[in-house]
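> call design_seq(struct)
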């Protein structure tokens, strides 16, 4: 059974930092591009960051560029999202996602439709 389990969410003041983790089981992530998405109340799930299977290529939404860093440790079957300089508008449920199929070494994906495995989400709340 494939599982992606997010952790590390919580309540933080504006300007603070959080580090989210996504631990995978039932699949080996080393061949799979992965990403982070978020969904705020009343809004659609949106792209946050993506990483190629090796971790060598990354992409970010403009709203988080320069503040968030996506990374992965394939040996530990885990992906991370370091979030710095958090803003109230970053408040959302954050989801990790993995492709169902392998892709070229530098490929990354920014659309929800490109991902087949999803975690249950972790709440991030940033107070002003």
């Amino acid at each position: 059974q494939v599982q992606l389990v997010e952790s590390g969410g919580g309540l933080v003041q504006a300007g603070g930092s959080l580090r989210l983790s996504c631990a995978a089981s039932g699949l080996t992530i080393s061949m799979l591009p992965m990403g982070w998405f978020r969904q705020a109340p009343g809004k659609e799930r949106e792209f946050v960051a993506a990483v190629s299977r090796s971790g060598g290529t990354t992409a970010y939404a403009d709203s988080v560029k320069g503040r968030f860093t996506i990374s992965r440790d394939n040996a530990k079957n885990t992906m991370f999202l370091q979030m710095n300089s958090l803003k109230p508008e970053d408040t959302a449920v954050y989801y990790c996602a993995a492709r169902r199929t392998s892709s070229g070494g530098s490929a990354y994906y920014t659309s929800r439709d490109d991902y087949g495995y999803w975690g249950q989400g972790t709440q991030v709340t940033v107070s002003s």
